[in-house]
Write a structure and sequence with these properties.
Length: 256
Amino acid sequence: YVVITAKPEALRMSYRGFPYEISGLKGNVVVDLRQDRVTIDKIVGSHGEHTIVGEAFVDFAPHIADSAKPVRFKIGILSPDVVVDRELTAALSQESQNLVDDFNFKGRVRVQVSVHSNEQGAVEVTGDVDLHQASVRYKHFPYELSLAGGRLKILPRGALLFENITTGDAATPRLSFNGDMTTKEGQRTLGFKFDVEGLTFDDKLVDALPPFLQSFVVNLKLAGSYDGRISGNYAFDGANAERFSIIYMGENIRTR
């Protein structure tokens, strides 16, 4: 049996399950024929100007012992500060790509991603995305928000968890968002909870509303600023977002 250790220089890597190219890789590669395993650790590379740290392993032993069992693998990627660009978005699942496009998400984030096999041998992508600075403008509600913090957790089976997504302390209005998104039989459901401070029905907000709500707000002549919580569920067809339903309620709504 043989153990081979190598220290590559300037490697390039892009896995088909997460096709985000990392170049200039340096680190340790160990091929252990005793355990039928390849390990890559202490890998450092870059994507453009962004530093990427990674590790990986491929375990052939279960498959060699029983051909019905899949090869096990895991690729871990960490970048402390990366721009969400087209190349990063293209490496996500189609559902996540659609979500980024629908919200016109732009900004800088800390990314920690795991691409790995599950017990059935299928590829899963999970991870955490921490916001440094970002903006969103949802296509069905084109009201741009600047975000200053929060976390998006990427879970198995296309599920997403939003934790304390917030605007800056000096922002008007101030907003905090928590929620989750799941997929079942082609339907995506977003459960949401918005805590809002200092919301005013100015022209920017009114212009972002659907026409029937614009008329409602204008006719009521709503003035002043509002605090409160809005929670509910937004369900839409994964193949046609124009088909949707929304249920929501306001809590502790008050004027200043």
